[in-house]
Write a structure and sequence with these properties.
This protein is of the alpha/beta class. The chain folds into three domains: 178 residues, Thiamin diphosphate (ThDP)-binding fold, Pyr/PP domains (Rossmann fold), CATH 3.40.50; 168 residues, Rossmann fold, CATH 3.40.50; 193 residues, 3-Layer(aba) Sandwich (Rossmann fold). Helix 3 runs parallel beside helix 4, helix 3 packs across helix 15 and helix 9 crosses helix 11.
């Protein structure tokens, strides 16, 4: 595709975005890329411009869009503080293996290296956070850089790319026709046939095999292939942190997830497994509980098959018996096409794994008037299966992970990077991408206020989202660690919050406060029937510290341990 003569760099950039399938960009406006904003005005029929209230929110929206669609989410921010605010979304995209491109307006080329206003060397700044960071100094090379950016973001292990755009370059006029190139597409790496043979050979020798699925680059079809593989071979399937929507949790093969505070019954089963088919995850700190569930470099008594799209990850921590450099989706498809192993001595064990998981689903008693487990269960029963559930980070997510049963692919938007403030902007991105589907954002009080200003974005674009704020008046996760290590010495974790109901109403939302579980159902129906977005604040007891522990219980255990020493 070629563009006409006499175009500015900004116009060529927008043409390239359209060529690569960009439907929406998220931004906070800045004078450093105002030429792009003008070009987007001309391209508004092809590309939606979503104006956000803080660059962290904009970057999180772009990351969530990339998760949902499999193609790079696009974010534009200005230099200096705009870029540093947006870095949180880049970090999440890197750790979550999400395709994303961050464009940063930069000082003019004639000001470079003089510490101009808000000048930063973004190539250096983002080098450890992105798959590739670069600066476009020649407007004629914009198509080259854009194709490489899209290709890099989707290739191998997906991730973020950062491109700096000097202000004067965007205004340069390019004479003559410019070839915009061709649309970039993912190129998934496939396993060799002999590697698939070897995996099946390992499976045929196993007594208690387990699949751990996760990582980036999955698809709805890959989830179906995973279910087919597991059904035919009676294999238990667990997933890594916040990958619970990779297959329907109702499938008999699904046995839970290795996230923060994984179920003890599941970690026990992991200890019993003699073959691990690791399809996609890095086997990082969260999945392995700080590398304690699987001791590196070679877990004793286990054969490990590790499939990962990045060759640099294979052998980095764990030395697998069979490392396979390929996309998990291609490996799962190849395995699902094979005949099942004849002898499957693990069938009873796999059923026991599933039974353990089902036992864990029953909400437990909790201190205080609001039982978050019961409320999540009520929500799941009332909402359609394709509802997109968004969350950030904090102990409140433990109830969500345990009691929300995912059915459809990409109905879970949550950062494996553990970034707070993700749920509200992710919900905005989800509703823009899928306006006909239900979207729920759940956030703790600390998590919510990190990007709660994006309620204004939801209101500006007329989106209908249910926001739930779990208010216990503290940074709960940090308080939990504090009580474990420094019991009865609270410092820096107590919060004085605004009136969340009044705050939400100021943005034009329907809002209510709930202090008893029995009041939630009626409040939810009123929120559901509200004409616009709604917010429900849940007042929870600080004693309800996590799914399996109370504040006083954690404190007393720590005090007893210290006394014994």
């Amino acid at each position: 595709m070629k563009t006409q003569a006499g175009r500015t760099g900004a116009q060529i950039l927008v043409d390239c975005l359209a060529l690569h399938g960009t439907e929406r960009v998220f931004c906070v406006p800045g004078e450093s890329y105002i030429a792009v904003l003008d070009a987007l005005h001309d391209g508004r029929d092809a590309i939606d411009l979503i104006v956000c209230r803080q660059e962290g929110g904009a970057a999180n929206m772009a990351e969530a869009h990339g998760k949902l669609t499999g193609r790079p989410g696009i974010c534009f921010v200005t230099r200096g503080p705009g870029a540093t605010n947006a870095s949180i979304g880049v970090h999440t995209a890197f750790q979550d293996s999400t395709p994303m491109i961050l464009f940063i307006g930069q000082v003019g080329r004639d000001f470079a290296d003089r510490e101009g206003f808000q000048e930063v060397d973004f190539r250096a700044m983002f080098a450890p956070l992105a798959k590739w960071s670069a600066q476009i100094d020649d407007a004629r090379r914009i198509p080259e850089y854009l194709h490489r950016a899209f290709q890099t973001a989707m290739a191998g292990r997906p991730g973020p790319v950062v491109l700096a755009l000097p202000e004067d370059m965007l205004s340069d006029i390019v004479a003559g026709e410019i070839d915009l190139g061709r649309r970039a597409e993912p190129i998934p790496a496939a396993p060799r046939a002999d590697q698939v043979d070897e995996i099946m050979t390992h499976l045929g020798k196993a007594r208690r095999p387990m699949i751990i699925a996760g990582g980036g680059g999955w698809s709805e079809q890959a989830g179906r292939d995973l279910v087919a593989l597991a059904r035919r071979n009676a294999l238990p399937v667990a997933v890594s942190l916040r990958c619970q929507d990779y297959l329907p949790n109702s499938e008999p093969c699904f046995v839970g997830h290795f996230g923060i505070g994984a179920e003890p019954s599941l970690t026990k089963r992991l200890g019993e497994a003699d073959l691990l088919l690791v399809l996609g995850p890095r086997l990082g700190e969260m999945t392995t509980a700080g590398y304690t569930l699987l001791a590196p470099p070679r877990p004793a008594g286990k054969t490990v098959v590790h499939v990962h799209p990045d060759p640099n990850e294979l052998g980095r921590v764990y030395q697998a018996d069979l490392p396979v450099n390929a996309a998990a989706s291609t490996v799962v498809a190849a395995l699902a096409a094979r005949e099942p192993v004849a002898a499957q001595p693990w069938r009873d064990w796999a059923r026991d794994c599933r039974s353990d998981y089902e036992v864990s689903l029953v909400p437990s008693q909790q201190p205080g008037g609001v039982n978050l487990g019961e409320i999540v269960s009520q929500l799941r029963a009332a909402l359609p299966a394709d509802t997109i559930m968004c969350s950030g980070a904090g102990n409140y997510t433990g109830w969500l992970h345990r009691h929300w049963h995912f059915s459809d692919y990409r109905t879970q938007l949550a950062p494996t990077s553990g970034a707070m403030g993700y749920g509200v902007p992710a919900a905005v991105a989800a509703k823009l991408a899928y306006p006909q589907r239900g979207v729920v954002s759940m956030a703790g009080d600390g998590c919510f206020l990190m990007n709660g200003q994006e309620l204004a974005t939801a209101a500006q674009y007329g989106l209908k989202i249910l926001f739930i704020v779990v208010n216990n008046g503290m940074y709960g996760t940090i308080r939990m660690h504090q009580e474990r290590h420094y019991p009865a010495r609270e410092s820096g974790t107590a919060l004085t919050n605004p009136d969340f109901v009044t705050l939400a109403k100021a943005y034009g939302l329907h809002a209510e406060r709930i202090e008893a579980t029995t009041d939630f159902e009626a409040a939810f129906e009123r929120a559901r029937n509200a004409p616009a977005s709604a917010l429900i604040e849940l007042i929870t007891d600080p004693e309800a510290l996590s799914v399996r522990s109370t504040l006083s219980g954690v404190r007393n255990s720590a005090l007893a341990r210290l006394a014994a020493n």
